[in-house]
Design a protein that fits this description.
single chain; 273 residues; mainly alpha; two-stranded antiparallel sheet; 74% helix
């Protein structure tokens, strides 16, 4: 027999649903609405992603050709005029066409995205490159470590939760011992002696339902921001111009770009001729 059958319908004295039941219904309705909204946003995201891929495959070479022609035109103008300002513009255009090397490629192993390697920093500051000092724990630290390892070993746990607690604690013990930090090992010993923190009172069913509603609301706000970014982005805005026939839109843009390429080629030929 189910709980509902045993307890009867969840209603008040007047026959109306109890507040908690209405809250449960609101949560279920919000969950279903959020699922539908997530499906709609994800569907549009995939459409934007696919259209972006097609856009890059079909139009990317044309954009690259236009950038190359722009650089050649500016270089030809600079060669004719000898004007430093024209040369600066030409160099900037050529830099936009050339691929940007990575940090490691630029500095040949001297640095990465985090900064200079220790050896490189030492060489630049005329400091000797010294290996890190080895830590030799004291006898007291070794004694504390062994006692804690025996008391808090994960294999002594009877439940998964307790085993996880012990594993996390032993990780901290190992780190302290590796540093030879005797005072920290004493603090860990005192912490272990106190035992685990008492379990906090869990939320009531109503509190859980309210928290669930709040999370659903926050999730919807996040999805709304994602959907707005997709719609207002360059690809999303382009896709919205022809949602039923995006291929036709790409063909129209390609035709326009071909015209611009032909115009640039004629301009370059005139400059070089």
């Amino acid at each position: 027999m189910t709980r509902e059958a045993a307890e009867g319908p969840v209603t008040g004295e007047s026959g109306a649903a109890r507040p908690e039941e209405r809250l449960e219904r609101a949560v279920r309705a919000a969950e279903q609405a959020l699922i539908e909204y997530e499906i709609a946003v994800e569907t549009f995201r995939i459409e934007v992603e696919n259209f972006s891929r097609l856009h890059h495959q079909k139009l990317g070479p044309m954009y690259a050709r236009l950038d190359e022609l722009d650089a050649q035109i500016l270089e030809a103008r600079a060669a004719r005029s000898g004007d430093p300002e024209d040369r600066r513009k030409a160099d900037e255009a050529r830099a936009r066409v050339m691929p940007m090397p990575g940090v490691e490629e630029l500095f040949h192993g001297w640095m990465d995205g985090e900064g200079l390697f220790p050896e490189a920093a030492a060489m630049l500051t005329d400091q000797p490159v010294r290996p890190p000092q080895r830590v030799r724990p004291s006898d007291e630290a070794r004694k504390l470590y062994r006692e804690l390892a025996r008391k808090a070993h994960p294999d002594l746990a009877q439940e998964d939760g307790e085993r996880q607690r012990r594993e996390e604690f032993i990780t901290r013990v190992n780190s302290a011992y590796a540093l030879g930090d005797e005072s920290l090992l004493r603090e860990l010993a005192e912490e272990w002696a106190k035992g685990p923190a008492p379990a906090e009172r869990g939320p009531s069913h109503s509190e859980e339902l309210y928290a669930r509603l709040e999370w659903l609301s926050q999730r919807k706000e996040l999805l709304t921001l994602i959907a707005r970014d997709l719609e207002e982005g360059a690809i999303g805005s382009m896709l919205r111009l022809a949602p039923d026939d995006p291929d036709r839109l790409l063909d129209e843009i390609a035709e326009q770009l071909l015209g611009e390429v032909a115009e640039r080629e004629r301009e370059l030929a005139a400059l070089l001729g």
